[in-house]
Fold Alpha-1,4 glucan phosphorylase.
Amino acid sequence: GNISYHAHYSPHFSPLAFGPEPAYFATAESVRDHLLQRWNDTYLHFHKTDPKQTYYLSMEYLQGRALTNAVGNLGITGAYAEAVKKFGYELEALAGQERDMALGNGGLGRLAACFLDSMATLNLPAWGYGLRYRYGLFKQRIAKEGQEEIAEDWLEKFSPWEIVRHDVVYPVRFFGHVEISPDGSRKSAGGEVLNALAYDVPIPGYKTKNAISLRLWDAKASAEDFNLFQFNDGQYESAAQLHSRAQQICAVLYPGDATEEGKLLRLKQQFFLCSASLQDIIFRFKERKSDRVSGKWSEFPSKVAVQMNDTHPTLAIPELMRLLMDEEGLGWDEAWDVTNKTVAYTNHTVLPEALEKWSQSVMRKLLPRQMEIIEEIDKR
């Protein structure tokens, strides 16, 4: 009944079409209802009990197919197999319609996905944070000439597993300069500000009521950033410049970095993930205890653990320092103490070519305030 409800009332195809693809989407949305119920219950439970929560920051997640995983973990495979038979379909055939979320590449991404699955299964208060790549790394086609690489099309139609959260939006600033106020405090100013918008993918545990979240950030510019005057004057590209820059950030996993532009884009992606996630984590820390005011920051590490998956999210360190000092008014020593106790790091290899290096000029250009903080950490 629920599947047929979604076929009629959450339609993504014209009403008479009920081929394998529409049938898959209707089934997936029906399963998503179960997941959402669990996700909401889990979120509420953690909100009330206020445990120490771990946050996993990773550039990639290789999730695999969600439909078979979800019905298996929820223990409803049989029920759904029966239900889709009534529409004349085999569950396996419908599952074959699913396109993998193109959010990962290899071992590092698969490990991140396994961690989410097992943390959900162990009922741990945990969340994953990542980026919502539109075109993934690439899709492989074998042609006469050999391998061809084309853009991944997992979002060409839409993904039934993600829920957009229009109320969860954070500003992320690139470029600009450092402003020093009369009292000596420093702040980032100018440059370009893009918004990070949250999409949640519920991750169910196996044989448990727990469903945790993989929160993916998408980059957006606002209507204010669209220059109507320029557009009406025929200058279409320059009218929507910030919009096209926003689209670049979450377009591709690991964009080529042979050029300076490529290096800037990769650094933008990494910082975008770190800044949005940390702002969200700080917001949740305050939200769970409304009496948490500036004096309570020493509590932060007993409520928050941030685990960085390899070198990509290491900008979380200077960014957490910046947020604590510039936005929350902490002094250096206190901010450093909090950061030190909150942030941890998983290393995947010690091969020098796998450990990223960024030139100081690129860093100073894109993230002037964070660069100051990095130099200060280095000096101390």
In short: The chain has a mean pLDDT of 90. The first strand starts at residue 53 and ends at 57. The two ends are 64 Å apart (CA to CA). The domain at 54-64+100-379 is CATH 3.40.50.2000 (Rossmann fold).
